[in-house]
Amino acid sequence: MSQKQALIVWGGWEGHQPEEVAGIFTGLLREENYAVEVSNTLDSFRDKERLANVDLIVPVWTMGKIENEQLYPLINAVKVGGTGIAGCHGGMGDSFRNEVEYQYMVGGQWVAHPGNGGVTYKVRFKDSEQPLTAGIGDFVVVSEKYYMHVDPAINVHAVTDFDDVEMPVVWTKTYGAGKVYYNSLGHQANIVRMPETLELMRRGLLWATR
Predict the structure, then answer these.
(1) N or C: which terminus of the chain carries fewer CB neighbours within 10 A?
(2) Phi and psi for 81 in degrees, rounded to 5?
(3) What average pLDDT does this structure show over 19-28?
(4) Rounded to 5 degrees, what are φ and ψ at 17?
(5) What are phi and psi of 200, to 5 degrees?
(6) d(CA 67, CA 63)
(7) What are the domain boundaries of the chain?
(8) d(CA 86, CA 18)
(9) How far is CA 69 from CA 6, 87, 106, 137, 155, in A?
(10) Which residue numbers delimit the ThuA-like domain (predicted)?
(11) Other beta carbons less than 10 A from residue 207's beta carbon
(12) Is 55 left (phi over 0), alpha (psi -120 to 50) or beta?
């Protein structure tokens, strides 16, 4: 079997420690014998031929702006080419706020984090026998708690509670020919390194890969 190819692109708002988080994902994928290219420019998405050979794209880019010449090769790689896309927190769920097609691909968009960074909350699994979640078990996080607008077509794997509202935390979906994995945890690198988050991301990265 040929080696899987992954592209990790980091940047945007520095408060989410994008370079450090990208390094964590690089380590996870290299442990799984992926060939990983790491970039800190959105111009990496301009190369249609390169993207056609990538099996997984991992964006770690909060807010910012993306040009059409960068966005649409990315969109087409996933939707038409079947390249997988996976990521976490604002690095994928709060990127490029004006780009509704990107949000449609992701399956949701951040809108608020009441209480900011010091909120204690439980992550509960909806399908604890499913391969993406089996054996991890519900766990507590002290971090930002993301309230998101979400696509009703997503497949929800984990949730948290906002009063009487059950808010998706981990989901999967398809976007054309590609698979999409998102996890709203990961405000900073220490949350990504939590054993539960790390294992969820490892499984999600592998699952989304073409």
Answers:
(1) N
(2) -85, -15
(3) 98
(4) 50, 55
(5) -60, -45
(6) 13
(7) 5-109+169-208
(8) 15
(9) 20, 22, 19, 42, 30
(10) 6-208
(11) 16
(12) alpha
Structure tokens that stand for 62 in this block: 């909060």
- Report yes or no: 136 and 183 within 8 Å, Cβ to Cβ: no
Q: Is this model's pTM higher than 0.85 or not?
A: yes
Show the tokens assigned to 131. 């391969």
Residue type, 170: V
Angle of the 18-31 helix axis to the 195-208 helix axis, nearest 10: 70
Q: How many residues does the chain have?
A: 210
User: What residue type is 50 in one-letter code?
Assistant: R
List pLDDT tens digits, range 160-200: 999 989 999 999 999 999 999 999 999 999 999 999 999 99
Q: What is the pairing mode between strands 119-125 and 155-162? A: antiparallel
Count of other CB atoms within 10 angstroms of residue 152? 5
pLDDT of res. 1: 66
Q: What is the pLDDT of residues 125-140, one digit of tens each?
A: 998 899 999 999 999 9
**CA pair distance 77, 54, nearest whole angstrom:** 8
| Contact between residue 136 and residue 200 where contact means Cβ atoms under 8 Å apart | yes
Give the CATH number of domain 5-109+169-208; options: 3.40.190.170, 3.40.50.880, 3.40.1550.20, 3.40.50.300.
3.40.50.880
Instruction: State the Rg of the chain over Cα.
Output: 16
Instruction: Provide the token pair at 125.
Output: 């699994």
